[in-house]
Amino acid sequence: MKTASTESTLSPIWNWKITALSFALLFFVGILAVSFGPVSLDFMKIIKTLFGLPGGLNGQERTLLIDLRLPRALLAALVGAALATSGAVYQTVFRNPLADPYLLGAAAGAGLGATIAITSAGADLYSLLPIFSFVGAILAVLVSFFISGKFFAEPNSLLLSGIAVGSFATAVQTYLQQRNSSSLRPVYSWILGELTVANWQKVAWSSIYIFIALTILITVSKQLDGLMLTDEEAYSLGINPNRLRVIAVVAATLATATAVSASGLIGFVGIVVPHLVRGITHRVTNRGLLTIALVGASFLVLADLGARTLLSPAELPIGVITAFVGAPFFLVVLRKKRLVSK
Amino acid sequence: MFKSKNFGLLISVAAIAAIVTQTLPAYAANPIPKRIISLSPSATETLFAIGAGKQVIAVDDLSNYPSAAPITKLSAFSPNVEALLNYKPDLIILNADATKALEIKAALEKLKIAVFLERAPDNLKQAYSEVTALGRITGNLTGAQSTISNMKSRISAAIKSARKTKKITFFHELDNTLYSATSDTFIGKVYKDFNLSNVADPAASADSAGYPQLQSEYLIKANPGIIFLSDAQYGESISTLMKRPGWNGIAAVKNKDVISLPEDIPSRWGPRLADFYEFIAKSISQIGTKK
Predict the structure, then answer these.
(1) Long-range contacts: B139-147, Cβ < 8 Å, 24+?
(2) Per DSSP, what are the bridge partners of residue B228?
């Protein structure tokens, strides 16, 4: 009796109502996103089309909604979820609040791959840009792993080799770019982040990898909390910290590489969203990983809505919005957190 | 790489230059340059067209026209002063958009090498005055004048041959993420001369330089009657356009009025501008015939 009453006064590790709420948020933001664009569409007709009811949109208007707005919103959601979740996982694995999904050289590797595809003499490689950046990101992280070697003993050595590999890849990328000045603009616009060329094919292949990675990460999310303890303590809880770190980093890298190759480099989501969710809920546990994914998805869908509408009919690079909106918001949360801990 | 002999020479040249500039308050009349380096593909084409080709000893790595141009590995984008000095030039054509153009100009002038700073023209008039300026500085003013009159007559003939009374809308595609060029840009003004209406113009406020990124949805609504692909060299064509969602409803795609622009001509503001006008004229006159 006594133990039961003390338990009830303790707040639970994770409040699943928050997860349900973030599901609702993503749904709401998604509807909002497909409702706006340079062409105004009837809102009720949009809803009817989305839910397969009679009286929906027809012809060109239907194409606009189904083949342009919907895949774009879905891709934004996938990329946002991937980046936010990977960011949260990297922060736990490296016990570093500043860790972000691009830390182990994924961004620089993807940038190098993309630049090779753009600057290559053959026209054919340009269409393979997503594959090049995906392979570039994976290779860079693999090399970081390989060089650090002592990863199992010390996550920091992986972090450092990731930074070194990243700098190296950036150097090669800059060299290639300077040697091919005509490719400057496409490389630059890729780096700024693009969801403009979203289509169902892109949504399909990126959703496969991102779903696999996120499922793995959410499945091990309970154990991930063990990585916040010392390795001895983790072992005593029945967790193999080394194996768990490898699983977590591999899955997070898969998600990041997919996101990067689908949309270029979109900064800030991987750092802001995990801290935002943790700050607002006052929970550091990784059981919030699903919520972080959902909030990340909502954040990017909303940012992309801004990218499409603020300068309509022109586009604004989405990376500009994520940082412009994300940074001040993040500072407010940080400040509140500090006041609370005082 | 680094020869101490050359370095010593460099210092002494610099020292002499310093003394000379101190003792002589003004330049003497410039002699006609005999060792010109062109670090601008447009200027290279102009130099050869006005008859200054024999004076050109080296051109940058992108100056691929005409074939007689002595192409080197010199970079126009990030010029290297020492690499330029190796050629012992007496005049260097430098693009104003090159990395640190003004610092490089100052360094070269300190070494008594004349520098012509070439700026990307905003319109035809500026393009012509650049041809004139290159003619004057290289001692080929008559050649420049006849080049200009030739360009003028070809361009006005091209415009006359194709100018349509009915407004045709067009989209100029820079890349497959739908960057375009408004009528404020040089290339936009070329299309404007043909009385074409640019679908990128409503987005002009998005980029002060005139190169906004358009949305696919907007383009489908704007329904351009002709599409010019300047990214054809990157693999875009009517068949890739047809695969883009919703694009098969666009008039230009439906009627196969999608034009692949030649690789370099649209970005060379020299004598081949006339070629570009003639190309556009021909493309417009063939609208609606390919269905």
Answers:
(1) B139/B32, B139/B33, B139/B52, B140/B50, B140/B51, B140/B52, B143/B49, B143/B50, B143/B51, B143/B52, B144/B46, B144/B50, B147/B46, B147/B49, B147/B50, B147/B271
(2) B172, B259
Q: What is the pLDDT of residues B224-270, one digit of tens each?
A: 999 999 988 878 899 999 989 889 999 999 999 999 999 888 889 89
Domain with CATH 3.40.50.1980 in chain B: 12-148, 163-285
Q: Do B175 and A181 touch (CB under 8 A)?
A: no
Task: Calculate the alpha carbon distances from B134 to A42, A293, A299, B42 in Å.
Answer: 59, 60, 54, 11
Mean pLDDT of all residues in A229-247 = 85
Q: What global pTM score does this model have?
A: 0.79
Comparing alpha-carbon positions, the chain A residue that sits nearest to B237 is A123
Instruction: Report the distance separating Cα B178 and Cα B164, nearest Å.
Output: 26
Helices (H), chain A: 2-9, 16-35, 43-50, 59-63, 70-93, 106-119, 129-148, 155-179, 184-191, 200-219, 221-224, 231-236, 241-263, 269-281, 289-309, 318-341
Residues of A in contact with B245 (CB under 8 A): 63, 67-68, 71, 199-200
Which residue of B217, B229, B239, B254 to mutate against A (max A Cβ within 10 Å)?
B217
Mean pLDDT within B17-25: 46
A180 part of contact set with chain B, CB < 8 Å = no
The structure tokens listed for A106 are: 């994924």
Class of the B12-148 domain? Answer: alpha beta
Say yes or no: B245 contacts chain A, CB-CB below 8 A: yes
Chain B contact set for A38 (CB, 8 A): 215, 217-218, 221
Domains of chain A: 12-341 (1.10.3470.10)
**In B166-176, which positions are buried (b, 16+ CB within 10 angstroms) versus exposed (e)?**
eebbbbbbbbb
For residue B136 the two structure tokens come to 């004057």
- Residues 6 or more apart whose CB falls under 8 angstroms from that of B216 comprise A68, A196, B178, B244, B245, B246, B247
Per-residue tokens: A284:
């550091």
CB contact under 8 A, A315 and B220: no
Residue type, B255: N
The answer on pLDDT for B192 being more than 90 is: yes
What would the pLDDT profile of A98-116 be if each residue is shown by its tens digit? 888 888 888 899 889 988 8
CATH architecture for residues B163-285: 3-Layer(aba) Sandwich (3.40)
A153 part of contact set with chain B, CB < 8 Å: no
Whole-number percent of chain A with pLDDT over 70: 91
Query: Closest by alpha carbon to B43, among B141, B151, B119, B140?
Result: B119
Nearest-by-Cβ selection for A178 from B77, B179, B206: B77
Residue type, A142: L
| A36-53: pLDDT as tens digits | 988 888 888 999 988 888
